[in-house]
Amino acid sequence: RQHADMKSAEKESMMNRKQALIPGTFDPVTLGHLAVIRTAANIFEKITVCILVNPDKQCMFDEETRARALKIAVAEFSNVGVAVSHGMTADFAKEIGAGTIVRGIRNAEDAAYELEMAEFNRKRTGVETLLLPAPEELRRISSTAVRAMLKEGKSPSELLPDGIWDLLREQGGS
Q1: What is the DSSP letter of 83?
Q2: Are 20 and 130 in contact (CB under 8 A)?
Q3: Fewer beta carbons under 10 A from the terminal one: N or C of the chain?
Q4: Region for residue 83 given its phi and psi (left: phi exceeds 0; alpha: psi -120 to 50; beta: otherwise)
Q5: Distance (Å, rounded) from C-alpha 164 to C-alpha 149?
Q6: Half-sphere exposure of 136 (CA within 13 A, CB side)
Q7: Which of 26, 171, 151, 21 is nearest to 91 (CA)?
Q8: Has residue 127 got a pLDDT over 90?
Q9: CA–centroid distance for 47 within its chain
Q10: Cβ 130 vs Cβ 100: under 8 Å
Q11: Is residue 134 within 8 Å of 111, Cβ to Cβ?
């Protein structure tokens, strides 16, 4: 009986490892985000890309626009869905059955922060974190850089997935 329970727990853990959560603000989604999503989509059977809503964070684009942009950006992936959460990352991962949180890192500062968060999430909920380094050519890309370009009246289209610039212009992002 105990052996069967262990096998069941092992199987559940393995099943959870087939599903991952990619959380973020995505204000807006960039080519850097898309690179992380693409890599994760090749590793995991199911990916949920989740807009985490932080009431303390001032966003340029509303939840609906960010969700629409993400859906456009991930349309090519049959195993990727989009969600919105107002809760904590690891809690949402457990809620949807994801055993892994995937985060992209561009530099040592990102890595240090993400390692702290990974440890916090593992201790709290048992959910693991996989850190994916951004390809060198995408490391300069960030949502902050896109928003700065928009505020300066410049086109950030070279930093965005196909179709996103058109959506942002419709929403008054220029």
Answers
A1: E
A2: yes
A3: N
A4: beta
A5: 15
A6: 0
A7: 21
A8: yes
A9: 9
A10: yes
A11: no
Q: What is the pLDDT of residues 53-97, one digit of tens each?
A: 988 888 999 999 999 999 999 999 999 999 999 999 999 999 999
Do residues 47 and 80 touch, judged by C-beta distance below 8 A? Answer: yes
Cα(75)–Cα(38) distance, integer angstroms: 11
Confidence at residue 1, expressed as pLDDT on a 0 to 100 scale: 53
Q: Which residues contact 174 (CB under 8 A, 6 or more apart)?
A: 150, 153, 155, 168
CA–CA separation, 3 and 11 (whole Å): 12
Report the pLDDT averaged over residues 28-40.
Answer: 97
Strands of the sheet containing 46-52, edge to edge, are 80-85, 46-52, 19-24, 100-105, 128-133
**Quick one: pLDDT at residue 57?**
83
Residue with tokens 């965005």: 160
CA angle 118, 28, 40 (to 5 degrees): 45
Cα distance between residue 20 and residue 33, in whole Å: 15
Amino acid present at 118? A
- Please answer whether residues 75 and 35 qualify as being in contact, where contact means their C-beta atoms are separated by less than 8 angstroms: no
- Euclidean distance between the first and final Cα of the chain, in Å? 63
- Distance CA(7)–CA(112), nearest Å, equals 35
Q: Is the pLDDT of residue 172 over 50?
A: yes
